[in-house]
Amino acid sequence: MAEEFLFEIFGTLLIALAILFVSLSIRVVPQQQGWIVERLGKFHCVLEPGLNFIIPLIDRVAYKHSLKEIPMDTEAQVCITKDNTQLSVDGLLYFQVTDPKLASYGTSNFVQAISQLAQTSLRSVIGQMELDKTFEEREEINRQVVHAIDEAAHNWGVKVLRYEIKDLTPPAEILRAMQQQITAEREKRALIAASEGKKQEAINLAEGQRAALIAQSEGEKQSAINRAEGEARSIEAVAAAQAEAIRLVAAAVAAEGGMSAVNLQVAEKYVEAFSNVAKQGNTLIVPADMGDMASLVSSALSIVKAGK
User: Fold this and answer.
1) Which residues make Cβ contacts (< 8 Å) with residue 149, sequence separation at least 6?
2) Where are the transmembrane segments (predicted)?
């Protein structure tokens, strides 16, 4: 009975040891992780995600690394710009473990190493720029910091993906000066805009006045042309009427009895002329020989005949 009891205890112990051995041998690695296995204190292998087996008491999992992208907030620090202005700068660093072996044995603490290197690289980049440039060239600062860190982090099995500046804070007196500068710049732009408006207004008024004067001169020109054309047509009409009248008179004189009518009209006009002269003045003008009226009429008729 004692032997059977001992045998049962021994069997149970073996089963327990077997179960313990199997449990210590099995390692299930989650996705996006890399585990470092050391065998007798020396690097042996990297366990990939999934089911893995190791030898208990000989192998041990020394390091566990996440292969995901890791964001790390860097502490705020004071940087001196090229024009000797202090800036409080903090940022966010994104990195990823690409080689678990180098991340384990390349440095004692790759996270601290990357953080310190990011701060020193940032101070170096900021020191090469003036204050105004630091606000305008954030992308360039980020690029240079990433480039500087990535070169060193390559030996640590880490890939630096990007660096983002969260805040740039100058001293209070610099902020006040910048605010005053911005206010002055805005007032300057407002004055320039107002002057440009007045200038454009004056140009528009001048162009409108010029157009009005041109239109007025064109109207006066057209009016003068119309008046000249009207006067010319009037003169032509009067001349045509006079010519027609002369032709009619000539035709009447050439007709039978026309000369007798002309003699009578000349005599009447002659007498009428002397009558008007006597009415308009205080001095009475009479022919030298009132009895020789017939000779005067004859003289007038001779003038008419000569003109004919």
Assistant:
1) 93, 114, 117, 118, 121, 160, 163
2) 6-29
Q: How many CB atoms lie within 10 A of CB 192?
A: 10
CB-count burial class (<10 Å; 0-12, 13-18, 19+) for 153: buried
3-state secondary structure 141-188: HHHHHHHHHHHHHHHHCEEEEEEEEEEEECCHHHHHHHHHHHHHHHHH
At 59-95, the pLDDT tens digits run 899 999 999 999 998 888 888 888 888 888 888 999 9
Nearest to 147 by CA among 136, 157, 161: 161
Amino acid at 201: E
Q: Are 308 and 253 in contact (CB under 8 A)?
A: yes
Q: For the whole prediction, is pTM greater than 0.85?
A: no
CA–CA separation, 255 and 250 (whole Å): 9
